[in-house]
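Reminder: ligand-aware prediction takes two inputs, not one.
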Amino acid sequence: MHFDCGSYQLDLACPRVMGIVNVTPDSFSDGGRYASTQLAIEHGVRLVAEGADILDIGGESTRPGAEPVPLDEELKRVIPVIEGLVNLVDVPISIDTYKPEVMRAAIAAGADLINDVQALQEPGALEAVASSNAGVCLMHMLGTPQTMQTDPQYDDVVAEVLEFLRLRAEAAVAAGIARERIMLDPGFGFAKRSVHNIALLRELPKLCALGYPVLAGLSRKSVLGHITGNRVEDRLPPSIAAAVVAVMKGAGVVRVHDVKATKDALAVVAAIID
Ligand code: 9MG
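Here is what comes back for the chain with 9-methylguanine:
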């Protein structure tokens, strides 16, 4: 299977690692360390040197309870980072945003992939992607980061997430986005209790069976804290375990903070399992 995004075509026969570049002072695990253009660019370059296959740039935190960032502030955070990175790295640049204005500006600045935690539901978002050649990651979430963890309820979380993503992919195709440009993501940690996250990971092959590449983002997330009791700064081993399981269950891309450690773990898996 391959995935088309911007000027890149990713062969997903081997799993790809998306490295996270937060440009958010309130980012839940970086504590604002990379909240300046230069530091974010340097961080992205370092992640590529460690083996990142994609960089995901985000200017608005999506952690539970995070406040929205005004449009102009988000643009000021992410656009200079994208402009800086496109000249320095040769991997697809992804922009983590749900705002159509940010999507358009990011694509004009050189972004190849739109990572939308709202699955292009914002008015104008489908059109912003359709009028470009960027790829898109459609993620499942109920509500917004402010409300999502209040009391998430599902009768059958796997069936409901699959149906949502199937319909959003259909909407994207109907808007003119080629199937090869679409990736799906169950949205681990977004309006989900641990039991929901675990069921979605266990049943990931059902999502893969929809025929689109699947992205899994479990790095440092609270479900790993619930399972292990570890605080966020001690979640590297559980994050690696989760990434390995996700790949073994069919994920084509894993979104992670710790690129080198994840690449090493996946290299061992690839050497042993065919
Ligand atoms: C921005 N962001 C935070 N967590 C994420 C996840 O699990 N998937 C995607 N696509 N984006 C995420």
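The CA atoms of residues 166 and 210 lie 7 Å apart. The chain has one domain: 2-7+14-272. We will return to this case in the review session.
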